[in-house]
Amino acid sequence: MRHPAGSTQAISGAGKTLPQVLLARAAANPDVLAQRSKRKGIWQKFSWSDILMAVREYAGGLMAKGVGRGDAVAVIGENESEHFIAELAIQSVGAVCVSLYPDMTADELRFVCEHSEIATVFAQDQEQVDKVLGLVADLPRIRAVIYWEDKGMWSYEHPLLSDIAKLRALGAEYLTARPGVFEASVDAGKATDPAVILYTSGTTSRPKGVVWSHAFLLDNAQRLGNGAGTKPGMEYLSYIPLAWALEQFLGMGMGILQPLVVNFPERPESILADLREIGVETVFFGPRQWESLASTVETQMFAAGAARRAIYKLGLDVGRRTNLARLEGKTPPVWTRFVKPFAEFAVLKPLRDKLGLVRTRSALCAGAAMAPDAFRLFHTMGVPLRNAYGNTEFGLISIHQGETFDLETSGSIIPVDPAYGEQIEWKLTPQGELLVKGGTGFHRYLNEPDKTEERRDGEWFRTGDYCTRAPSGDIVFMDRLDDLRTLAGGETYPPQYIETRLRFSSFIREVMTVGEGERDNVAALVEIDGDVVSQWADEHKIGFSTFSDLSQKPEVRALIAGEIEKVNRLLPQHSRVASFANFPKPLDPDEGELTRTRKLRRGFLAERYASLIEALYGPGDALDLEIPIRYQDGKKGLLKSKVNIERIDHGPGTTARMEKREHRQLPVEAS
User: Which InterPro entries does the UniProt entry name for this protein (predicted)?
Assistant: First the structure.
């Protein structure tokens, strides 16, 4: 999959729009590989001149349909070349792009289209078209719906509907009749023009539309390049939706500025195979994806024989004493020089190869907190995983930089190109809230001036994050300020700090801690990782029928209790989990339990599972629970399940007493 990189060099985006940078890139490197897109098992290649031609024709088609400066155009679909080209074409005609999550429900889509006054929609396929056409009667501003995958679309007839081939043909004809109109439109753009509207995750209320300028997007792309250590021509696989801020900075902004070779997987399910085929050098996943990769490794080791498991553990031990030691600024023991080649050959390199990360030189995690031990695992394997911290409104703030850094922190402040503004400064309020300023800064929320002003404190931006300062001077993110909880005794605790450490367990997919007000201790609701726990159950010959049945098995509850006890030992007494219950079903964004970025909707969960939370603090050991659910076909139903309550003793001899309980006799694989 290698390609001639050509003489590519970074281009400055200062004072430019993204389409203006594209024109400069295509002029400088017309024949250099820009993108690959996998279709029907074959990687299709596109040079910068190919990308520019497609952007021109898309843009010409939009102009012919009356789309122009001041309009908002939505794009909904997976990460594919057409998605990226559509965004650049939208910006080329002076409109603003609203990138949407492909798994949005119709109600979520309706809200965004109404709020941002969408005029045109690019939709990937039949599924997305069905969602949009089901809403157009209530959304009179929509003038066109354009799709780029025609499978299943042969019988569709609608006056607003057309495919991408017709749009390109219309655009080519429009531009031929009007020479120079595309270039004039791009040239008329200003760096301060709106480029993108991204919607916040909406964990506590309706999502807010964050308006980005071209300068903001390119400023943050430049910051990321400075902090992540990427190089021109690096292979990058685009997977995280463009509705995420960091994917806009990395896949879109850095993809053109540096440039990167941006690769698009055939489908989300083929991501691991495609990672291996490409041999990516730069990769970005959210915490849930990195945790899933870690679980993949652990799951496969369950089925391995005793000898393979012993070699695996030995290899990781050597990796910890070498790769992790260097990261922490320590000198590895002398004897590791002799065994490291064996560990690399037999364990570490095969692990990276299995995950498609053999050639990875820049690996990023962002979007939410992840346990430091998860970072340590990947560094042990030889994957240079770094955490990037920031938010949709202000952009990137800090990242793990250099060859040595503290995994317990959120990294050090990222340098800003002076062309975009002052260097980032930060301070903590007496309440622990992080305030920042510098760079292009926060612009505004769409149609919400009051909410915009709430986030400003003079020249400072209020992040809403509760943070501390490490001895090194770096930022340490703890939790959202609004999510801090106070127990009956007056002690406070940060839920995310506990939850991220619990999620490091390969058996736990998600967890929500509860406890405040009149509650005197912390409790937890746990979503087991169905794939990992089911394989663990098979290995231990534990029969089960459904997810609900598996989650309530005595042996599984004992397994989760053991994982919670490990984390409890690291926590202050008042922050330790005293009781827990396993959710009887997986948490689902379509049911409002999670955001599209898989963040907990705490208020919704607290209301939906109110009776279960009460039971965690009551005297009983089980609860008959009824939960309304929505099936994949849209039909609604009711899940009835008996949910067991587990108590965890924090006193001396806890582990010994718990091991004596009958239902906790089975051995537990170390995670």
Answer: AMP-binding_CS, AMP-dep_synth/lig_dom, ANL_N_sf
